[in-house]
């Protein structure tokens, strides 16, 4: 069964600290993996996208890694800011259909305290 | 600035009412989607469209219906709202030209969502 599991479910850190969010998936055949940021009451916004051949990709203070062999990804946030408080969703796409079926994790709820 | 719009942002309505959630995008995307999301849960695909006059049901069974008469517009309708329809509804679109990668990875761009409460 194609699944995307994220950990931790929630995380609280102090402003300025770093953190790492985890994503494990069983989706096959794999096409790409995205990390989205979803602010409360808003739609998700794409942070990074990685295909099979990419191991790491950065977007400002966000760095995503992908290990396609172990089917694991991580999102590292450096020097956290209050505006980083949001849900971070891992989304995996398969190659099994024209639609490019997306599998969503439940997200990690990050809270950054001053 | 957002290129995909949803209205209303919040809707509180009584049981049995007919409602239409609007979604429009200005990116010329051929594919559009409707998702349902409950608090703390993953997004569930309820409808999608490959283009004009194309609509398909998603993975999560839904009593709603959709139409795609114009490329930019993908409204969702509930003929008779019930409390079990209370949820957040997110619209998304994607196209062959990906703004991030200049490739064909079909990133989905989401609207701000409609929070529906049925009393």
What does it look like?
The complex is a heterodimer of chains A (114) and B (119). Chain A has strands spanning 4-7, 10-14, 19-25, 30-38, 45-51, 56-59, 62-67, 72-77, 86-94, 102-104, 108-113. Chain A has 114 residues and is mainly β. In chain A, strands 2, 4, 5, 9, 10 and 11 form a 6-stranded mixed sheet that branches. Chain A has a 5-stranded antiparallel sheet with strand order 1-3-8-7-6, with no helix packed on it. Chain A is globular and about 40 Å long. Chain A starts with a strand and ends with a strand. The model of chain A has no long low-confidence stretch (mean pLDDT 92). Chain B has 119 residues and is mostly beta strands. Chain B is built from no helices and 11 strands. In chain B, the strands form 2 sheets. In chain B, strands 2, 4, 5, 6, 9, 10 and 11 form a 7-stranded mixed sheet that branches. The radius of gyration of chain B is 14 Å and the shape is globular. At the A-B interface, strand 4 and strand 5 of A face strand 5, strand 9 and strand 10 of B.
Helical percent range of chain A? under 10%
Strand content of chain A: over 45%
Structural class call of chain A reads mainly beta
Give the helix tally of chain A: 0
Q: Got a strand count of chain B? A: 11
Kindly state the mean pLDDT of chain A as a whole number? 92
Q: From the alpha carbons, calculate the radius of gyration of chain A and give it in angstroms.
A: 14 Å
Largest sheet of chain B: 7 strands, mixed
Describe the oligomeric state of these chains in a short phrase.
Answer: heterodimer
Rounded to the nearest angstrom, the radius of gyration of chain B is: 14 Å
Q: Gap between N and C termini of chain A, in Å?
A: 41 Å
Rough outline of chain A: globular
* Low-pLDDT stretches of chain B: none
Strand content of the residues of chain B, in percent?
A: 35-45%
Succession of helices and strands of chain B:
EEEEEEEEEEE
Question: Distance between termini of chain B?
Answer: 33 Å
User: Secondary-structure element sequence of chain A?
Assistant: EEEEEEEEEEE
Count, helices of chain B: 0
Low-confidence stretches of chain A: none
Helix % of chain B is: under 10%
Mean pLDDT of chain B: 89
